Amino acid sequence: MPLAAAECCQTIYNSYGANSTLSTRNCFCVPDYWTDLTAKQTLGRVRLSSYLDSCKALGYPVYYYQAGTGPCSGMPATPSSGGGAAAGGRTGGSKYKGTPLSKRSFGQWLRDLGDDGLLLVSFMVAVVAAVGGALMLWSFVYDLYASLSSKARKQM
Question: With contact defined as beta carbons under 8 Å apart, do 22 and 68 qualify?
């Protein structure tokens, strides 16, 4: 079993663990997702399932698909074929049966940015880029307006 780093395991657990508040919670339990993910690990030296087992030993259990066995066996894993409330599903939103993931408001999401430094920096850069893009667009529109209005004045 590979030796897992506690910090890495905690990060994986916070994103993919059963108690995560993110939309990625229990993604490894979805057979198609797990199969696609493990098919891409051929270049790595460590098997993802072994690493997650090491994380479990450190106290960060992250469940993954194990062909109908293990902790994921009782979780929704395939899209439901019938959608409405009569079929036992929800009447909209997710295609998967079961309890929907918790959703946070934009304000709650902003308050939680301080917990993840990389996400906070990414958000700040995105805001600066959006403001800069808007200013560039405004200067382009203003220059175009000034150019067209000066041509119109010359023609009079």
Answer: no
Q: Provide the residue type at 93 as one letter.
A: G
Interval 75-88: pLDDT, tens: 654 433 333 333 33
pTM across the whole model:
0.44
* 98-154 tens-digit pLDDT: 555 566 777 887 787 777 788 888 889 999 999 999 999 999 999 999 998 888 778
Strand, coil or helix: 66: strand
Exposure class string for 100-131: b at 16+ Cβ within 10 A, else e: eeeeeeeeeeeeeeeeeeeeeeeeeeeeeeee
Question: Do the beta carbons of residue 49 and residue 38 sit within 8 Å?
Answer: yes
Question: Which residue has 């399932």 as its token pair?
Answer: 49
